[in-house]
Amino acid sequence: MAYILQQLLSETASRFPEKTAVWAQNRTLTYRQFEERSNQLAHLLRARGVEKGDRVGIYFSKSVESLVSMLGVLKAGAAYVPLDPHAPVRRVEYIIGNCGLKALITTQAKLRGLTPGLLRGSGFILLVDQPNGSPPAGDAVGWDSLANFPAAQPPVSTSIETDLAYILYTSGSTGDPKGVMLSHRNALTFIHWCAETFPILPEDRLSNHAPLHFDLSVFDVYNSILAGATVYMIPEDVALFPATLSAFIEEHAIRVWYSVPSALVYLLLHGDLGHHSLKSLRLILFAGEPFALKYLRQLAEAVPDAELYNLYGPTETNVCTYYRVDRSILPHIDRLPIGKACTNTEVLAVGDDDQLIKPGETGELYVRGPSVTKGYWGDPEKTAKAVLANRFQPHFSESLYRTGDLVTLDEKGDYWFLGRRDSMIKSRGYRIELGEIEAALYAHSAVRETAVVAIPDEAIGSRIKAFVCTLDPRTLTKADLQQHCANRIPKYMVPELIEFCDSLPKTSTGKVDRKRLVQGNLT
Questions:
Q1: CATH number for the domain including 477?
Q2: How far apart are CA 47 and CA 513, in angstroms?
Q3: Edge to edge, what strands does the sheet with 307-312 contain?
């Protein structure tokens, strides 16, 4: 069993050297090419001064070079930092400065948009699209320079399982992103659990729908490599158009899919499934946000032979609980369990009395085990608030990650996600969970998408506002929705403010951008 991520590729390349490892933008790499190219990159990085523990940024749209960059950085003993190629420049530059990149792998166009001199010390730029024979831009090196370095493996003794493997930046409450530090052990705990739970076969074709700065991509990339399967990196222009995406799935006979639920909802609603089939899919995983049950029922009907799994977990732990969808109960529930803890992981739910909850009670979810993050890069204060000493185990030192998510436990031992602790609001003295209101709204047949936010109000604490996208705006009014909700939830939870809109704003990872909704920014 591998104890560092790069071993996955080296071992698979020795077993399946001529098998296609990755498809991206109509280009492919075999496992032999993938192994050799990443070895060359590792040698180049070391020759340019990248050392164990350094951070290397990856800043360009998904391509075969993206995966070569990730594995090459690891083989150099460094940690990679995937940067959102569509993020505002200010955010990208903040991340570059925050984690002190030693090198940046990017394109000429992306480099031109950045302030010169951002990298620390002797940092350098590697351009993946610099034409052969063209003069370097400043201290930049062209991708063709890799050919000057050995294709043999560099020494692997520079990395151990507790070393940092990558940093994923997520939204921070202060407005600046926070860098979640993940070690080889953190990642491999998840990867090996996936391999045991959803065995991936060498003949499988996995989609990579998630951006590489989103933790969902860890499954796509590394479990494909572990199995000797092929990962298909879905082009951004394809991912944006559901009908094109369903055609892509059919044309390439994708067998394994992992995404946020909203991507699947758009496939169901706009994927032209009368002309394109999803029948090649044998395994569908989804995570990142609750899946509206009326759409999950549609998905279960559209792919009757596929296994469906609801995966739950923050970036700080990757997946920590999972639930295999039981089709027989779908007609009878209004939300889906997040299930039980993954192997080699334990979850604890702690009530307001600081005791572990019993079935039927509500508490905040904590996670322990080797998947728990080291914390946040350069921010010991945030780390101390989220990664705590395990007070329920007094005999030796270990960490608990505090998720901030509220759950309840049923008699079968399954956890059910209720919402964020910070989305539990008070209005007129009542405690209200916004997710429960969203579930009520989704139960209306004309509601396509919805999100509920709290608007601060000095008099009553918070006013409840719902943003609603409908299948046909001419057939639904505010009064209709309020009456619909009143039949399902207490009167004090019925949204008094309802705004109809064509679509909800999304973050770069495909989740609803609630911060923009609170600000009234729908564009």
A1: 3.30.300.30
A2: 42
A3: 27-30, 20-24, 230-233, 205-208, 256-259, 283-286, 307-312, 321-324, 340-341
- CB 177 within 8 Å of CB 95: yes
| SS3 assignment, position 26 | coil
pLDDT (tens digit, 9 = 90+) per residue, 467-513? 999 987 777 999 999 999 988 887 878 999 999 999 999 888 888 88
Statement to judge: residues 432 and 414 lie in one domain: no
105, two tokens: 């792998």
State how far the Cα of 510 lies from the Cα of 404, in Å rounded to an integer: 21
Residue 317 belongs to a domain with what CATH number? 3.40.50.12780
Pull the structure tokens for residue 285: 């995983």
Residue type present at position 327: R
Residue with tokens 């005999």: 395
Instruction: Tell me how far apart the alpha carbons of residues 70 and 80 are, in angstroms, rounded to a whole number.
Output: 6
For residue 128, the enclosing domain spans 5-19+28-182
Instruction: Name the nearest CA neighbour of 242 among 295, 313, 309, 288.
Output: 295
Tens of pLDDT along 156-180? 655 688 999 999 998 765 557 899 9
HSE toward the beta carbon, residue 334, CA cutoff 13 A: 13
Q: Are residue 241 and residue 382 in the same domain, yes or no?
A: yes
The single residue listed with the structure tokens 């071993």 is 7
* Number of structural domains the chain divides into: 3
Q: Which amino acid type is present at position 201?
A: L
Output the DSSP codes for 382-432. Answer: HHHHHEEE-TT--SS--EEEEEEEEEEE-TTS-EEEEEEGGGEEEETTEEE
By the 10 Å C-beta count (0-12 exposed, 13-18 middle, 19+ buried), 519 is classed as: exposed
Pair 361, 435 in one domain: no
